[in-house]
Design goal:
By secondary structure, the protein is of the alpha+beta class. It is about 60% helix and about 15% strand. Strands 2-3-1-4-5 form a 5-stranded mixed β-sheet, sandwiched between helices.
């Protein structure tokens, strides 16, 4: 092998090493960006969507409803009744554990494409997409929503472990039949959640 051929072989080896390292750097950067993105949209305690990401997902869904004119969304403000007693009795560390369990209960009782996120404290939001009972005029159907019933049952069981009557209150706003934009939907669902609390907790308010 001539001196020139050796130089070419050496250069090719160097280029191959650089190419391999470049691919490794790209993969590392991709993983880093994915991790940073996940951290940016995730609630640190519960692993659900944080408020900012939750609002973005709800906005996207409402824009889709406006474009297509055939989908619908039940926006549900969900609050855990008597959660403060957990913190007062067992401390905030145990309260955090209960919030994590609550998040798991919410996530496991909706479909994979429904929207679930933490609003703040023990308040969470569910976005139920194309609910089968959306068009019903019988409010009793929504007040006995099977999703709510499953969540309530699991939360009561969680409360039994602490000898505290945990339950769930829920305020619902229907998009687009009642409101057509996110801000008004949030206001309406929040108002109905407050009504659920005022009327004795452990119930769904849809009107």
């Amino acid at each position: 092998m001539t001196r020139g051929e050796l130089k070419i072989r050496l250069l090719l080896n160097i280029l191959e090493e650089i190419s391999e390292r470049y691919d490794e750097i790209l993969e590392e950067n991709k993983k880093l960006l994915e991790r940073l993105h996940k951290e940016a949209i995730t609630d640190q305690l519960t692993g659900l969507l944080n408020r900012k990401a939750l609002l973005e997902e709800l906005k996207k869904e409402i824009e889709k409803i406006k474009r297509h004119g055939k989908d619908n969304l039940c926006l549900c403000f969900v609050d855990m009744d008597f959660f403060k007693k957990i913190n007062d009795t067992y401390g905030h560390a145990e309260g955090d554990k209960v919030l994590k369990e609550f998040a798991k209960i919410l996530k496991s009782n909706v479909r994979v494409y429904d929207i679930v996120g933490r609003w703040g404290g023990d308040e969470f939001i569910l976005g139920i997409i194309n609910c089968e009972h959306f068009s019903t005029t019988d409010t009793k159907v929504c007040k006995n929503c099977p999703i709510y019933e499953r969540i309530s049952k699991n939360v009561r069981a969680l409360g039994n472990k602490y000898s505290i009557p945990l339950n769930v209150s829920c305020g619902v706003a229907k998009i687009p039949s009642e409101v057509k934009d996110l801000e008004k939907a949030l206001q309406l669902a929040d108002k109905r959640l407050y009504t659920a609390k005022r009327l004795g907790k452990g119930r769904v308010i849809v009107d």
